[in-house]
Automatic annotation (TrEMBL):
Gene Ontology CC: cytosol
Protein's name in the database: Amidohydrolase-related domain-containing protein
GO molecular function, one term: guanine deaminase activity
Lineage of source species: Eukaryota, Fungi, Dikarya, Basidiomycota, Agaricomycotina
Record-level GO BP terms: guanine metabolic process
Cofactor(s) of this protein: Zn(2+)
Alphabetical keyword list: Hydrolase, Metal-binding, Zinc
Domain spans labelled Amidohydrolase-related: 70-418
Amino acid sequence: MTNVTPVAFAVRGTLVHCPALGNVEVLKDHLLLVDDRGFITYVSSAASESSLQYINQLGSTVRTLPPGSFMLPTFCDLHLHAPQFMYQGTGLDLPLMQWLNEYAYKAEESIDEHADLAEKVYKRLAQRLIEVGTGAVLLFGTIKTDTNLILANAMQEAGVRAFVGKLSMDKSSRPTYKESGHEDSLRSAQDFIERCRNSVASLDEHRRLIEPVITPRFVPTCSDELLENLGGLSKSSSTRVQSHLAESYEAAEWVKAERGIDDIRVFQKNNLLGKGTVQAHCTFLTSEELELLATNHTAVAHCPLSNAYFSEKPFPLREALDKGVPVGLGSDVAGGYSIDIMSSMRHAVATSRMREGTRALEAKTAPVGDSETNSLAIEWKEALFLSTRGGALALGLENSGEFKVGASFDAQHISLYDFGGLTGVGPLDFFDLGPNYTGLTMDMIEKWWCMGDVRNRAGMWVQGNKLI
């Protein structure tokens, strides 16, 4: 047998992952081994000669998944406002700019003023993320450094992989909730980056689950001087960037009236587009601007649910994918009411089908050749890729989101059917699984994708650490 790093975890059963857009790969009866650092060291058919040797050697330490269940990579949430989790599911009747003033800024200011509240909210947020299978999350925080360190610590202690953004905003419609100027804001961003990294510096590199992110809230809350300096800081400190881009008509028009150019051009001239940047929403981008994102390797956090509430149009998902824009999914809590990325997957498909329906109807009366011929719809398999491997790539997690040697073992155990009790798990019902059952089918996975919930999650691991 080939020598490998000592095995800390071994599992035998069905593995499901999406190595490419639209490709759901079902690896039936496979053996997967994980080392003590949380990395996958072996993946192969359990019937292979080397697998049989491992199984014989490891004996009862091999965890065997019951039939009717499978391992899946954990979900990635590319856009979540951590302090807004406090009032999730309220106030969604207002337009974006009013909603920010009435709810978001007040909540963020309150949580900055009360460290005990921040700790309570953020620990609960981490628990909820684990419940819904989110193993990696890109977070917007608040403007106060200490509060964001509470957020980072809550995620690290819970075992969730988190990219934490301290807001940079030297302008605000709420006078009490902004930084005093661009110099103060820049110093604060530098301080957070240093202190966030130092908070995990004593840990082995593979155990450092948190990273700081430079986070200009969006163009209307940032001066040109601040944006220019943040672009320089990102380059000098090798720090990722996140923001909101072209989210609503009102915000887009505000930027054009004030700056004379679209917000994407504002980000571009300040070196805030590039590899390592994730821009949320992007609903008002043109075809040319999508190509600009692709050329600059800038990723998009697609938030279909919050777009329905706060943007006047849907994100052109199919066009972005066709142009090679890296795309993942975001919950956008609290602009979106659900923290579950399964909700985002379903809304992404539903929105794309509505877009395709509109296109098809318009094409019936349009002159031949004047309309698109390729479908704008995506299917569930593509959405599953966006929530796992696609999201990981958008976050720069090259070795995550799939089951391969060298990848981090970030996985969730999904249970669909209990053969002992002859019943579906949670909300799922199956009426055709009898004694001739030969293993997990694509139809069973699709049923879970459409109807499954937290009751189907029987286990979860991040970097090999068991969280459920």
